[in-house]
Design brief:
- The chain is of the alpha/beta class.
- It is built from four helices and four strands; from the N terminus they run βαβαβαβα.
- The chain is globular.
- The two termini are 25 Å apart.
């Protein structure tokens, strides 16, 4: 049985000091079918330079005008290729089991469920 592809979207704004650690934790996830999309919301610091260190392991979307986290998330959704979407913030780190746990939980819910919020 193949895994659903998960698009992980990370909005960021002026988080050069936090984003590297956040993305590093995402790259260690124990789930084989996912993509990481980081949406820079017109940062004025060196966030983009930090992100470019990851090369092709992540997708970077650059907004020209700061629109806030919701606008950044929406731009991430526009380029997402996954059947499932997961959001985290650029100052957060995740456990290796984060996506496995989320997908397992989502499979227990009715197909009509469009979104789930919470902390694990």
């Amino acid at each position: 049985m193949s895994q659903e592809k998960v698009s992980i979207i990370v909005p960021t704004y002026n988080r050069a000091n936090d984003i590297y650690k956040a993305v590093e934790s995402l790259l260690k996830i124990d789930y084989s079918n996912y993509e990481i999309i980081v949406v820079d919301d017109a940062s004025r610091d060196n966030t983009i330079e930090v992100l470019k260190k990851f090369g092709t392991r992540i997708k970077i979307v650059q907004r020209k005008i700061n629109g806030g986290p919701a606008a950044a998330r929406n731009d991430g959704i526009k380029v997402a290729k996954g059947e499932l979407i997961a959001f985290t913030d650029s100052d957060c780190t995740v456990s290796k089991e984060w996506i496995k746990t989320l997908v397992k939980f989502l499979k227990t819910l009715p197909k009509e469920v469009a979104g789930v919020c919470g902390t694990i």
